[in-house]
Specification:
The structure is a single chain. By secondary structure, the chain is α+β, with helices and mostly antiparallel strands. The chain has 2 domains: 64 residues, no CATH class; 111 residues, Alpha-isopropylmalate synthase LeuA, regulatory domain (Double Stranded RNA Binding Domain, 2-Layer Sandwich). Helix 5 packs parallel to helix 6. It starts with 30 loop residues before the first strand and ends with a helix. This is Acetyl-CoA acetyltransferase. Keywords: Transferase.
């Protein structure tokens, strides 16, 4: 990347010694290569090494091992979740953090005054024999879903919330708690409301499933 000046020793007896303030910055992590010559010289060439094809493949493998979501969608997982999911294959990641115990099958909203909205949801898993149709008025999808889950004995408290748009959909990550148990969960949806509701359903599945 950088080329040092060619400081070959002149034909005189003068010898130049490196000063302490000329020490190389180790943070640059350069690659050092001796320059051959007929005379002994203190000159060296240092440059940033270009990764080989094998090193590039290893780097891609390392990204997959460290963050399966980033390897698939280009977004990093939240830090705590990234530590848990390290090394997971995508199928295992989905089954772990988005279990199908409870699922939001459909959702529609109607705006009301004062920022409130009417939600119509169909949720499976709340009852063993059939799905549950829910009509609820709330300030948002998160508060609506937490109330629905609490009414069915599946309380979920959100500790952390992260949301990204991916392609034409939305993904939501939540760090949730019930009593002393804490879990990470993920939810996908066509829009942000369905995504957060699905993430809370996933969290309830991990906490109470």
């Amino acid at each position: 990347m950088f080329e040092s000046q060619d400081n070959r020793m002149p034909t005189t007896t003068m010898i130049r010694f490196a000063r302490p303030d000329e020490a190389h910055d180790e943070r640059l992590a350069p690659v050092y290569t001796d320059r051959p010559g007929l005379r002994r010289s203190t000159a060296v060439t240092y440059r940033e090494g270009n990764p080989t094809r094998l090193e590039k493949r290893r780097n891609r493998t390392r990204v997959f091992a460290e963050d399966p979501f980033r390897a698939r969608f280009g977004h990093r997982l939240p830090a705590g979740m990234r530590q848990e999911a390290r090394g997971m294959e995508w199928r295992k990641f989905v089954t772990t953090y988005a279990p199908s115990t409870y699922r939001v099958e459909s959702m529609s909203t109607t705006r009301r005054t004062a920022g409130r909205r009417d939600f119509e949801m169909t949720i499976s898993g709340l009852r063993e024999d059939a799905g549950t149709q829910v009509s609820i008025t709330s300030m948002g999808a998160a508060s609506a879903m937490t109330q629905i889950l609490a009414d069915h004995g599946r309380r979920v408290e959100i500790l952390e919330f992260h949301q990204y748009d991916i392609f034409e959909a939305t993904v939501t990550f939540v760090f949730a708690q019930h009593q002393t148990k804490k879990v990470w969960a993920v939810g996908f949806g066509a829009d942000r409301d369905l995504s957060i509701a699905s993430a809370l359903a996933s969290a309830a599945g991990r906490l109470h499933g």
